[in-house]
Amino acid sequence: MTKYVIRGGKPLYGTVEISGAKNAAVAILPAALLVDGVCRIENIPQISDVTLILNILQELGADVRTVNRTTVDIDCSHIRNARVPDTLARKIRASYYLIGALLGRFGSAEVPPPGGCDFGGRPIDLHIKGFVAMGAEVDVKGGLICAKAKDGRMAGTTVYMDMSSVGATMNIMLAAVLATGTTVIENAAKEPHIVDLANFLNSMGASIMGAGTDVIKIKGVDHLSGGSYSIIPDQIEAGTYMAAVTATGGEVLIKNVIPKHLECITAKLVEMGAEVEEQDDAVLVRRDRPLERTNIKTLPYPGFPTDMQPQVAACLCLAQGTSVLTEGVWDNRYRYVDEFRRMGAQIQVDGKIAVIEGVAQLTGAAVEACDLRAGAALVIAGLAAQGSTEISQVRHIERGYEDIVRKLSGIGADIRVVVTPDETKAVQAG
Ligand code: EPZ
After folding, report:
1. What is the CA(307)–ligand 1 centre distance, in A?
2. Alpha carbon distance 310, 296 (integer Å)
3. What CATH number is attached to the domain comprising 311?
């Protein structure tokens, strides 16, 4: 079993480089299925979710060539519309983008239901509502989501999203770029990775307007040719390092970011006592005075991102006073709280609200990551805590954070990877 062992209580100092955005990459890579030519995609994060998606594309017959550590050439000109392998697809949430991409390219798709972080129900009814509105018949049989365009090709229409959904907005965009006619998505989500997907598709010959606003218009085209595109920096990875130095104290230059995407995170960390200096493609974050309490509600972009909720909770555990955290997007995103309590945190959770009483210090403990951002939050708590913290189930963290141990060590963290024989295997062997 692989664990991270952290000796905490040290401020962080130095410079860290942010990688490409996970939630953009896991949509842009499947979007290559729509392109009849070679897509050169740059600034891809080296994370396991990306590796999985590339493996799925290869299973479908795509030609994937590594150009360098963060760049691949993907040629889907000759792919066959094979069934997506269940073993791979069920491991990540983003496999649902394969439905929109295959529907858009072939007019049909057979994809296993998605996996991903467990926050209670993660329905895809809004995705299906969009596909059906565009003329597809969708049903689940034999453990697969089976979708087929009635006339062999998706048809443009207007789709009103009952609620702001990142995945549904991007999936409908994927199904619409090669459709007949024009598709209008109303009440669309506005996250930076949605704009990134639209920019990628437009660079390949699509006609998408309005991404980043709540009305996106997609004029269907006959085909997408090849091209090259560089993925935006990861807003949440950057926010995670901002929260880390806010929790531990110190001063860190976080490079390769788009400050505009971090505005809401910056505003809240400054309320808590951090100082944030914005530069063209970097933010300098410093915290050298006591952490102050604040209240935070997570909301769709441009609100405070839900994917930063566990990380900022780690900071609030050490803030003077009582803070109220409200999860505005997911039904149950507080599974990490029990692990924080093992470190001395004082948190009460009631439904979507967590009331956090700040404590003078957290103490290191053996804890377990239960999902991607919860795992990152435990790393932050361990960095700030007195003593040693051992984090298990780190595979969750490595789904979305490239080289996190190296990057943290580079800013002064005492963190190392420890691989121990897997007790369960030992028992089986015995
Ligand atoms: C994306 O998930 C991200 N994942 C999540 O990040 C992120 O938390 C979420 O957007 C919100 O920003 C990826 O991009 C791979 P939604 P997604 O559709 O698309 C409800 C991370 O840590 N809903 O915006 O699944 C849903 O239950 C991950 O990187 C429906 O009811 O999120 C939720 O309450 C975790 N029906 C809300 O909408 C649907 O058909 C927002 O979900 C779809 C969603």
Report:
1. 10
2. 11
3. 3.65.10.10
Encode pLDDT of 88-106 as tens digits.
Answer: 777 777 889 999 999 999 9
Of all protein residues, the one whose alpha carbon is nearest to atom 34 of ligand 1 is 330
Element (H, E) at 178: none
**208/337 same-domain check:** no
Pocket test for ligand 1, best of 49, 124, 166 (most atoms within 8 A of CB): 166
User: Is the pLDDT confidence value at 239 over 60?
Assistant: yes
pLDDT above 90: percentage of residues in the chain: 88
- Residue 90 is inside which H or E element, if any? none
30 Cβ below 6 A of ligand 1: no
Instruction: Report whether residue 165 contacts ligand 1, using a CB cutoff of 6 Å.
Output: yes
Catalytic residue among 39, 76, 117, 370: 117
- Mean pLDDT over each residue of the chain, to the nearest integer: 94
362 with 397, same domain: the answer is yes
The CA 123 to ligand 1 mean position distance, Å, reads 9
> Which of 230, 257, 291 finishes a domain?
230
Active-site residue 146, yes or no? no
158 contacts: CB under 8 Å, gap ≥ 6 = 133, 183, 184, 186
- pLDDT of residue 413 exceeding 80, the answer is yes
Domain with 361, as residue range(s), is: 2-19+233-422
Domain boundary pick from 191, 211, 230: 230
109 three-class SS: strand
Pair (13, 27) in one structural domain = no
What is the per-residue pLDDT across 164-179, written as a single tens digit (0 to 9) for each? 999 999 999 999 999 9
Hey, whose CA ends up nearest to atom 22 of ligand 1? 307
Tokens of 63: 């030609």
**57 within ligand 1 shell (Cβ under 6 A):** no
Angle at 359 between CA 357 and CA 363, to 5 degrees: 130
